[in-house]
Amino acid sequence: MNSFLSFCRDSVLVTAVIAWFLAQVLKVIFVLIKDKKIDFSRFIGAGGMPSSHSSFVVSLAMGVGLVSGFSSTAFAISVVLALVVMYDAAGVRRAAGQQARILNKIVEEWGKEDFKNTEKKLKELLGHTPVEVFAGAVLGILIALLRHL
Question: Where is the signal peptide (predicted)?
């Protein structure tokens, strides 16, 4: 039991999961504030403020840096991973969401506003704006600092 408590207290993996969880909770809270409704799908969905992908990988990288050292190979690997994930979130996945939005409009106009000619409406909220990615990264840094300093 003591080793489990030590793992929970010291693990950078637990740090990353906490950062991801808090980002997902914040998404629900921000939608509640903005739209005046509780949308629990935001808890598991991609996209939105802040980026949970960014908070997850940045908290991991920061935690690795604080625990293993900022000159360690593990830190370098985790930073590269974080940069790839954040680039994907703000670039590729965001562009895919924008394309889905346009395709959905085309299908609505062509199909007279129903999707019976297609499987279903394409998911539009896939990626993040640069601000959402930045906010997720800041959240990740703060969580890692709070847990490992």
Answer: none
